[in-house]
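Hi R.,

Here's the chain you asked about this morning:
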Amino acid sequence: MTVTGTTTEDTAAPRKLRVVMAQLDFLVGDIPGNTDLIIQATREAEEQHQADIVLFPELCLTGYPPEDLLLRPSLDLRVQEALERLQQANLAPAMVIGAPLRSAGLLYNAAVIIEAGETRGRYFKRCPPNYQVFDEKRYFAEGSQTLVVDIKGVPVGITVCEDLWKDGPLEDAAAAGAQLVLNLNASPYDIDKQARRKALLERKASENRVSIVYVNLVGGQDELVFDGGSMVYDHSGTLKVEISQFTGGLFPVDFLCEHHCQPVSQPLPPEPSLEANVYNALVTGVRDYVNKNGFKSVVLGLSGGIDSAVTLAVAADALGKERVRAVMMPFRYTSSASLEDAEAQARAMGVQYDVFSIEPMYDTFMATLAKPFEGTRPDTTEENLQARLRGVLLMSLSNKFGSLVLTTGNKSEMAVGYSTLYGDMAGGFDVLKDVPKTLVFRLAWYRNSLAPVIPERVITRPPSAELAPDQKDEDSLPGYDILDQILHFYVERDYSAEAIVAEGFARADVERVVRLVDINEYKRRQAPIGVRITERGFGKDRRYPITNGWKLGF
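And here is the predicted structure, written out as tokens:
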């Protein structure tokens, strides 16, 4: 165990310590830009908040997750140059930053303390995670030592993210005399995550009789969204400070440190509804994916259905109406209700709106295919052709105007393969990829509670792809309330089909859904990425083989 500069001496009056939580958005790979942001934030924290400590998120120097950028030969040099810049800035507050550091030939996920131009300490993350979306053991060695450093006369312990979730690192810091533990995080959002964090922090703080400052990254990175939600718990396990999720900024917290470091309470934000939280996650994910990748605008097919309606609302809220283009592409099966509702929403949201019929193109294709198709009956071939024609139009607009195509498929449809390769799956980002259909409806009602932009008929009428006469989604699937429950058990909780039947679902429904999920793995591998909101999305969380002999999920 290594303890640097600790002190536990009593004083006549409590020491005052101000910690500024830097809940900020960093760009993966932009080490110079991230260094600029750290320096700028520290200066602001000093000038406006008189900070003693500025605590940044995990791996903020590289952004998180840097993935195989960590294997680049120039990584060490770039990180070293950035650390030298931070030292040369000679800023008074103690900056606690996250960075990849190499020691004795091994790479570590590290926290570095720089104060007044000097490096005061380095801590190597002891518990790199390797589950769900995390793959840190591919890159990082495990640290083994404890760091407690004296800052303004207060013994402060350092841990990094997963170190808090495992027994050992926090306990060792408390045993080494830490009155306050700073925890750097890059913890991605999912629906129940903040509640799990709170339960953990409450237990860890009370069991170890130590206050904890938990600072989390905010912003989107590919499929991941980081929600912030930084918090401070006192030594009794009481939540004293919580920062609103999906809000970037610098947030000061005062501590009075004697036998314990007691944070000064601040008003807690109201508990957001599930729908509000998910909607904010989608907006954050779209905004950062589009902006960080340099797209000027987005384009999407607006069908008059619920999925494209919610996708349009998210896109406009994320980017502004001027950067969003909606295209209705009707066919002979498109209802007048769909045409009316699509136009009504586009007008209500003020986005560019176009109508391009696919009828002439469809007729040309069918004339070309008349001879090989002779003697056959119409089936999904003709339905898929409609979807693919729409995909061609959207991709052409994308190429011509530099717009990112947003696809509109939801998790329920993606799970069972109710989507068309190179058709409605054609595009660069799927806003609803991890959103079950039943939640899509709830998001629509939520968005309309802010301002009524989605026509009510879009939400209340039965969903249909409108690829055939009088078609409804539930003609060939269980009702979405049943389907989404089966998918929850099979996809997100890895239940076998037998175990799902034992939960009370009809065997025929379970076997059909499980089979559809299994045989459509190849489609999902080719789908665009989208915002992850559950613990088990169709992205890095799921790594099932396409070619396999596993039968029916039993």
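One quick note: The first helix runs from residue 31 to 49.

Cheers,
M.
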